Amino acid sequence: MSTSEPRLEVPWVEKYRPSKIAEVVNNEDAKKKYVAWINAWLRGKPQKKAALLYGPPGSGKTSIVHATAREFNWELIELNASDVRSREALRQRVSGALDTGSVFGYQGKIILLDEVDGISTREDAGGLQAILELIEKTRWPIVLTANDPWDPKLRTLRDACELIEFKKIGKRDVVKVLESICQKEKIECPKEVLSAIADNSKGDLRAAINDLQSIALGKKTLSVADLQVLGDRAEQENMFEIVRTVLTAKSPEQALSVTRLPSLDYEMLLQWLSENIPYQYEQSLQAIADAYNALSWADIMLSRMKREQQWSLLSYALELMTAGVSSSRERPPFKFVKYSFPEKIRILARQKEKFEEYRKVVREASSRLHVSTSKFRTEVQPYLQVILEEDEEEGKMILRSLGIPENKINVVFKTEEKAHS
Ligand SMILES: Nc1ncnc2c1ncn2[C@@H]1O[C@H](COP(=O)(O)OP(=O)(O)OP(=O)(O)O)[C@@H](O)[C@H]1O
Ligand SMILES: [Mg+2]
C-alpha cells in the first residue's frame, strides 16, 4: 500500500447516519410504533417509560435514537455496560446529567442504553436492578437496544419496556441508501455493483456501507472488477469486522465480546491486529504504543500457554488482545480505515505455495528417474544445475525429458535472471 493513498476517512456509517426519524429507512412497522411511543412521551403519558428496540445488527436501532435527539433538539445521554454495572455506577453517571438543567439549550433529554444484551451475561444483577429503578423514576424517555433480548435474565426488563422489533433491511432499500451515498460522494458506480454489495450484506446496512467505502477508497469510478475486494472480504469478512470491533470498541466489554465468537481464530487475530493497529490509531503514537504493549503481552501469554500447556492462560491472552489493545486513554477518534491482510501471513502463504510447487516438480522428476526425492536433491540436482549453466539448451532438453517444462525450471534451479538479481 502506497503512503500517498488516503487511508483515513470519516466513516460513512457516521457521516450518513440519519438525522431525522424519517430518514431511517425500512422497518416501517417499527418506526410507526416508535413514533407513537415518542408522541406519548411528548403528551406526557407514555404507557411504558422505556422502549426496547431489538433486532439484527445494522438495522437502524441506534440510528433512530440519535435521529430523535437531533430532530427534537434533545440531549442524548448514552450509557454503556460499564455505566450500569452497579447502582452506584449508574447513579454517578446519570444523576448529574438527569437532574440538572441543560446549559446547551436542549429542549429535553433522551437516554440511550445501547446493547443491553451485553450486560445480561455478566453477573451484575445490581446493574439490572439499577436500570429498572431508573426506568421507574425517569422523567425522560429511555431507549434500550439489543440484538437478542430473549435471555431469561432480561425478562423483568422486557416487561418494563415497550418491545419494538427491527428487521433486516430489505435489499431494495439497501441499494437505495448506497446509491444516495454514491451520489453525495460523487462516485460513479454501476447498479450491479451496488446490488452485489447489498446481497453480500444480508440486510445489514452498516456492513453494506462499510463495504462500499472499502471498495471506493481513493476512487471515483467503480466497476464490477472492484467487487474482487469484496470477494476476498466475504472470506475474511469476520476478520475485518472483528478487527474493527476491537480497535474501535467503546468499552472494554465491547472489545471483549469478539472472544465469544465460536469460530474466533486468535492466532490469526493477533496477526491482523499487529498489522492494522498503526493504521487505525495513526493519529496517536501513544495509542499505538499502548496497543502494541498489550498485544505483546498477549503474544507472550500465548507462547507460554503453548510451551507449558497452561491452557488457563488463554483467557488472559484474549483479554489483553481485545480489551487491552483497545483501552489506550489516548485513542484517537474513530476513523474509517481500510484494513490490510497481515503481511506476515501473506509472505508465509507465498513461501508455502512456492515450496509446494517445488515439491511437485521434484517428485515428478525423481519418479521418472526412479530415485527418491532426497536422492534427487542431493545427487542429481547439482549435476543438472552444472549442465544447465554450461549448456542451457542441452540442460533444458534433459529437464524436459524429466518432466520439468521450461517455465518451471526456475522453481528448482538457479537460472540466469535469478543469478543476476
Ligand atoms: N434503517 C436505517 N436507515 C438509514 N441508515 C441506517 C439504517 N440502519 C442502519 N443504517 C446505517 O448503518 C449504520 C449502523 O446502524 P445502527 O447503528 O443504527 O445499527 P444498529 O441496528 O444499532 O446495529 P447494532 O445492533 O449492531 O448496534 C448507521 O450509522 C447508518 O449509517
Ligand atoms: Mg446499535
Describe the structure.
Keywords: ATP-binding, DNA replication, Nucleotide-binding. The chain is built from 20 helices and 7 strands. It is α/β, with parallel strands linked by helices. It folds into 4 domains: 27-165, P-loop containing nucleotide triphosphate hydrolases (Rossmann fold), CATH 3.40.50.300; 170-242, Helicase, Ruva Protein, domain 3 (Orthogonal Bundle), CATH 1.10.8; 249-337, no CATH class; 345-420, no CATH class. The strands form 2 sheets. The protein has a 5-stranded parallel sheet with strand order 3-4-5-2-6, with helices on both faces. It has a two-stranded antiparallel ribbon with strand order 1-7. Helix 14 (285-308) runs antiparallel to helix 15. Mean pLDDT is 85; it is low at 1-7. Bound molecules: adenosine-5'-triphosphate (ATP) and magnesium ion. Residues 61-62, 114, 145 line the site of magnesium ion (MG).
In terms of structural class, how would the helical and strand content be classed? alpha/beta
Number of helices: 20
Task: Please give the CATH architecture of the largest domain.
Answer: 3-Layer(aba) Sandwich
Query: What is the chain-wise order of helices and strands?
Result: EHHEHEHEHHEHEHHHHHHHHEHHHHH
Percent of residues in helices comes to 55-70%
| Strand line-up in the sheet with most strands | 3-4-5-2-6
Shape: elongated
Q: Write down the domain tally.
A: 4
Return the CATH class of the largest domain: Alpha Beta
Largest sheet: 5 strands, parallel
Radius of gyration: 28 Å
Tell me the β content: 5-15%
pLDDT < 50 stretches: 1-7
CATH homologous superfamily grouping of the largest domain: P-loop containing nucleotide triphosphate hydrolases
User: Remind me, CATH topology of the largest domain?
Assistant: Rossmann fold
Number of strands: 7
The hetero molecules present are: adenosine-5'-triphosphate, magnesium ion
How far apart lie the N and C ends? 24 Å
Averaging pLDDT over every residue, what do you get?
85
Function: Part of the RFC clamp loader complex which loads the PCNA sliding clamp onto DNA.
Protein name: Replication factor C large subunit
Pfam families: AAA, RCF1-5-like_lid
GO molecular function: ATP binding; ATP hydrolysis activity; DNA clamp loader activity
